[in-house]
Amino acid sequence: MTNLPTPATLGTDQAGSRLHEFTVIDVRTPAEYASGHLPGALNIPLDHLRSALPEIRHAAEHGEILVVCASGARSESACELLAGQGIATATLAGGTGAWAAAGRDLHRPAARATWTMERQVRCTAGTLVLLGLVLGLALHPAFQLLAAGIAGGLVFSALTNTCGMAALLGKLPHNRPRKADLDAALSALRGR
């Protein structure tokens, strides 16, 4: 039986003092990544992680891997996936939110303004709830089921620490990596 690596969790002070030693992989959407990321982080969105396994494995052979996201939930999932493939990783506790709250710098490339996934989910959920209530009052009470469905989805999301709406919104064009950006990140991993 093979012993699979156990992902480590590092605090901002631990990660910050050793940041130069890590290959940092940010698993958020490109829009979230563009809104601010750890210096030197490469953007490999969570849903592209499996296709990047050869490059990540290569980088892990030449140094430690630190996986980050907004709050730590997606990076934990990514670390579990990578551990299942025999790749040792660490995750940043609290993600880029904790990094920024600790007063550490985030790299913000000059680009168009973007919304974080959390903000996109809040806006979409709120809009759908309002739409369901307004249509329920104006047209037919059955439209209020839309509001109830969104409320149920939000409760389920909180209980399971997953978010189906974020997964759907992540497929929108502005949240998808451009091929050139993904290719550049993969090339950088191969060069480690």
Could you characterize the architecture of this molecule?
- By secondary structure, this protein is α/β, with parallel strands linked by helices.
- The chain has helices at 12-17, 30-34, 53-61, 73-84, 95-101, 117-138, 144-160, 164-169, 179-190; strands at 8-10, 22-26, 42-43, 64-68, 90-92.
- A five-stranded parallel β-sheet has the order 1-5-4-2-3.
- The radius of gyration is 19 Å and the shape is elongated.
- The relative contact order is 0.17.
Q: Calculate the terminal CA-CA distance, rounded to whole Å.
A: 30 Å
Tell the overall outline.
Answer: elongated
Relative strand content: 5-15%
Cα-atom Rg, whole angstroms? 19 Å
Unreliable sequence segments: none
Give me the count of strands.
Answer: 5
Provide a concise account of the structure shown:
By secondary structure, the protein is of the alpha/beta class. Helix content is 50%, strand content 9%. The longest helix is centred in the middle third of the chain and has 22 residues, at 117-138.
Write the layout of secondary structure elements.
Layout: E1 8-10, H1 12-17, E2 22-26, H2 30-34, E3 42-43, H3 53-61, E4 64-68, H4 73-84, E5 90-92, H5 95-101, H6 117-138, H7 144-160, H8 164-169, H9 179-190
Parallel strand pairs: 1-5, 2-3, 2-4, 4-5
Keywords for this entry:
192 residues; 50% helix; alpha/beta; 9 helices; 5 strands; 5-stranded parallel beta sheet
